[in-house]
Task: structure prediction
Amino acid sequence: MKSYAVLAFRCALEFVGVQYFSNKAARLGRANDNQSERLTGIRTNRVTIHRFRWGLLFASCCVMSAYLCAQLISAHTAQPTKTSTEINEAKAIAAFNAAYSVLTYPRCLNCHPAGNAPLQGDDSHPHFDRVQRGEDGNGVYALKCNNCHQAQNRSGLNMPPGAPNLLANGSLDYTTPRWHLPSAQTPMIFQGRTPAQLCLQLKDPKQNGGLTAEQLIHHVSADSLVLWGWNPGEGRSTPPLTHDEFVSKVRDWLENGGSCPK
Amino acid sequence: MSSQNVSRRFFLSTSIATGGGLLIGYSLSSSGLLGEVVRASRGSKPTADSQIPLNAWIRISPNDEVTLISSQSEMGQGIMTTLPAVLAEELGADWTRVKVEFSTVAPAYRNPRINWQFTGNSESTTGFFELMRTMGASAREMLLTAAANRWRVKAEECYAENGRIFHKLTGRTLKFGEIAEDAAKVSPPQNPKLKPQSEWKLLGRSLPRVELASKLNGTAIFGLDFVLPGMVYAAAMQSPIHGGSLSSFERESAMNLPGVIDVVPISNGLAVVASQYWQARQALKSLKVSFDGGPNSTVSTDGLMKQYRDALEGNSWKTVRTAGDALGEKEIAAKHDFFSQEYESQFMAHATMEPMNCTAYVTNDSCTIWGPLQGPELAKLTLAGMLKLPPEKISVNRTLLGGGFGRRLLVDFVVQAALVSKAVGKPVKVVWSREEDMQHDVYRPATLNHITAGLDKSGKPLAIAHKVVSPSILQFVYPPAVTEENDPSCLEGLMETHYEIPSQRVDFKLLKVGVPTSVLRTTGYGPNIFAVESFIDELAFKVKQDPYDFRRRLLKDERSLKVLETLVEKSEWRKPLPKGVARGMAYTEAFRTHTAHVVELSVKDNLIQIHRIVCVIDCGVALDPDITKNSIEGGAVWGLGVAFKSNISFKDGRTVESNFHNYQIAQMDETPPIEVHIVNSSTKGLGGTGEVGPVTLVPAVANAIFAATGKRYRSLPLSRHGLKLT
Amino acid sequence: MKKVSFILNGKSTSLETDPDKPLLWVLREEIGLTGTKYGCGMAICGCCTVHLEGDAIRSCVTPVSRVEGKRVTTIEGLSADLSHPVQRAWMEIQVPQCGYCQPGQMMSAACLLAQNPKPTDSDITDAMSGNLCRCGTYQRVRRAIHRAAEIGAEKGARG
Result:
């Protein structure tokens, strides 16, 4: 798919180029004959114009098909969903920086730690009882995440927070908790990341769990663990933006080209 | 204490107990109130009617069941195994078949040293050893006499072994159960012959704990587990500010909640009573209640420490000890090359794993208590006074304790249970949540120690002067010992020392503070020995002597020297260590036991990694070496918490810490290998071990950190200096 | 109130209760099994540890609704006769002092050994650092887990 699009695009370019240069040669050949032609570069010769127009049409088709391929490809990569004419790098970066303030807030950061163990509390101290990530991010042995964390927050100060399981059809399953870290393979570290680093990491399918831009937006909108960040239980503060604001910043960032701060 | 004196003193009280107290206990147990079986040891039903008491401590049934009585409460120190083992040793019982039950509250069961029934201060073994020998030997001789009578032979020709009486000459034998009834009719001998140590079969060996099986299969009954038919539960809430009181509450805000029966005021708060604890606890959350702050609503750690500091810098000291010239700080400074330092130990919570609780059933004319108590006699007397009932109508019974550490010597939680039961007319178990327990502890107070020593030209201390500032710790536990200016428990470890220093002086200031304070495991020894053994180490460094050599020069006592030599040997003190690893040591005698530690560690940034802990103790004779080792190992772990992590702080009159996330103790990942070596000397020098474990561990840690880093830390916990155990 | 049914120590159990009530209190007060202990109520001490389908959950924070239809094992159900390798090792080495935390220690240890029959010291630290012991029996717990692994292997070898 990708190579076809590239081929089509190159054909289109060459065709347009060939047409343009052959036209130019023809124009140059008649340069002295027609001043207006010289100025406009358009042959008034009927046959040439005709040839040029068909050539342009063909080129356009190539460009279009290349573009369509690119669109299909972009459905599988984190590429901007707006047309390139609407890309606004500064807007994207500003949106990302706002989102960054949420991503590095303890509610998110604590489960996106740099080390082998989750953090807890507004001061992001190491989780008590030496709880660890484990290979699959679910903890180890008698200290697996779901051994203590439930499908909902337990009420009271210092009680374990919780989140429900998210089923494939998008509904929430309150019989089973879903509390975990990213796996050791794909640790999705936010702690200690500069905005530039985090931005690149979030866009990289190899590091973000294979998500597209759409999926990333969906994740921050609807994932039960993300939503928990704004309903974290007694004694835990919420991020500096509301959830809606956060989602809209992520959307703005990605839909404005997903540019990253330097 | 000779067996003769013991026999005379206790003969009368044991027979009273036999005739009186025990039978009262039985009549209650066979009544409808206690239909539920209490499985205190091995799940046995007390078959009260058939058991024949030979004295207050030993009952034998015709079907040959031997029941031994434990006067002491079991909180993990193994006393319900070790003291009955003394009885069994003298008796000649078959240890594999004995059952152990807790005693009632009666004069027979008082600790002979202070004639008071309690379990604490590491003086169960030391207090009862001779008495147990005598009681066991007395019962044995009664059995021998009865058997000899039946066989028409001489008692001297008979002996007891493994639950049987044997006649040496003919080989005839009788099981204890077969002769018990006759034996009970024999007059207890005045001077029973005690078994020589050389013939011990049980003592000096490691026996399986009597309650071990029940602690492994979930059947062990702690206070929180005990159930009476018809029992209801009460969740207590006390004034969040220490010394405050209940102002008002809206009963109706809780009454309609599931299971709620009543809301009952107690002395400094209230309790919600419900069919289940969970219901009571939930209802407590919804209850509208307000408290009066009282006089202590501005108490804070900063304010308290200022109070301590002002006391230390002020005058009006009470001199509690003088020896030799008894030079004070100024005099020492004038006369000698002197060195002065100050040390601080922190406020701590008991934080027993089993939170405070007690079960009570109070009727118009009786009161029955079941709970994890260390101070059953205090409970009985307090309840008698409070309920205006004669003491014989108060029955105080003990379950196992999920930790004691001195907290359960007090009776506040017992009184609450009785009050609530009286109010609702049913059996009630009062339960404190962990938060309630942590914030209404009666805390181990901070101590400030200021020590000054004067040295001679060879660097030997000629004079030592202590100034100690502390609130009372005995005040609620044993009030008779506490005066306006003195509490002897606060001075443990300073009133006597094996260090041969000619001039000694101890000055004390008893503080009154706005938070409740009491004894906690290690009592006065803990803070004082942290100070002394850190100070001795600092002196050694000052005069450029090895910490062991410096201490050895000051010691003459054989047992002290033996313990230190053994420590040096076992810890390989002289062996050079790899770069970055250092050792610290400490020695003292505490609770009559000689104890010494070496801690080996390395320090990186502020992270302390302990590689090894070596401990040597001489507790006279370790009657059960494995129980002793377990206790001392555990004591080292306790000590790590004291040294590095545990701290109680106060703000606006309240305790800040509420659970184990902010009141921290040592955990498995921080526990290094711990070796315990027991040096046996003699039963004449029997010492306690329950509280000894942490005493020299804590200063050994501080000394090792100094050896490793050159930095001396003089206040605990070390977390306040940013140090962390890894 | 709601009917909750589950399999407790091998037996079908059903009761009407508040589905949000922690399993710990259902076990202790409604069913009468007091082996599982209350130590902190916030899942930090491990005294309340039981097995849910083999996982070592903390019953003080687990709503009883979560065990609907599932298998729960408490300390009372670890074996009928103290024969579980963990119990045998605990007995041999005399681990407990006061004993209050030990059911939780044993349940966590049993979970470790079920997942890792021959744990290293590091595995033991990983598994057990969440079980607090005020008496400080950690060194014995560690020894006993190694011993339980041996006993388990012997049992396995005998078939």
Observations:
- Chain B is about 30% helix and 25% strand.
- Chain B has three domains: 3-216, 223-295+356-431, 302-347+443-725.
- The domain at 223-295+356-431 of chain B is CATH 3.30.365.10 (Aldehyde Oxidoreductase; domain 4).
